[in-house]
Amino acid sequence: MTTSAQDMAISDRLAQLVVDAHGDTVTLDWILAQLHERAFGLFLLILALPCCIPFLYGLPQVVALPLMFVSAQILLGRRVPWLPEKLSARTVATQGLDNLSRRSGPWLKRIEAISRPRLTALTTKPLDRIVGLALVLFSASILVPLPGTNTVPGFAVVIVAMGLLQRDGVLVILGAALGTAWIGTLIFAGASLASLIKTWIGL
User: Fold this and answer.
1) N or C: which end of the chain has fewer CB within 10 A?
2) Which DSSP letter does residue 37 get?
3) pLDDT digits over 72-119, tens only?
4) CA distance to 132, 142, 179, per residue, from 55 (Å)
5) What is the pTM of this model?
6) 63-83 pLDDT, tens per residue?
C-alpha cells in the first residue's frame, strides 16, 4: 500500500524529496511545487534546517530571505506560499539536500515521536498570524553578519515549523520562546556594545 505525500511522516517526506530530485541542483520553486498541502510548514522546515548547522556560511544566507518572505505570508494570512522569480530561482545542491535529509532525519523522528495535536488554536487562523510575525523576526536575525548567529534562530524556526506540521501548539510555544530569547539576547548585546563604544569615545 502506497503512502501519499500528505500522510508521510515529515522525515520520510524530506527523504522522498531527494529521491524525486533530478540533476545536480534543484530550485526553490521546484521544492515548493513538490510540497502540496503541507507547503507552508515543510518549506519553512527545509529552509530552516541548514541554518541549524553552526558556522555554516553561504547556504543560510541563500535561504534566509525566502524564509523571511514565506514567514511574512503566514503573517498576512495567505493559504499557499509563493516566491517571486528571483527568490524561486535560487538553487540548492541535490547532494546538499540529501545530506540534510540524512543528518536531520533521526532528530525529526524524535520530534515526531513526542509531538501530537495540542493547543491546536496556535497552529490555525487567526493565531497563526502571530506565529508568522515571530517567524519573520527569527528569519531576519539569521541575516545578522556574525559568526554562529544562524544556529539558534534556525532551531527556533524548525521547532515552530514542526509544531505547525504536527498541529502541536506546545512545540510552537517552545520554538517561539527559544527564538524570542535569542532576539532579546541580540538586543541586549547590541545595547551593551553601543554603551561600551560610547564610553570609549567619551560620549
Assistant:
1) N
2) G
3) 999 998 888 888 888 888 888 898 888 888 888 898 999 999 999 999
4) 26, 12, 18
5) 0.86
6) 788 899 999 999 998 888 888
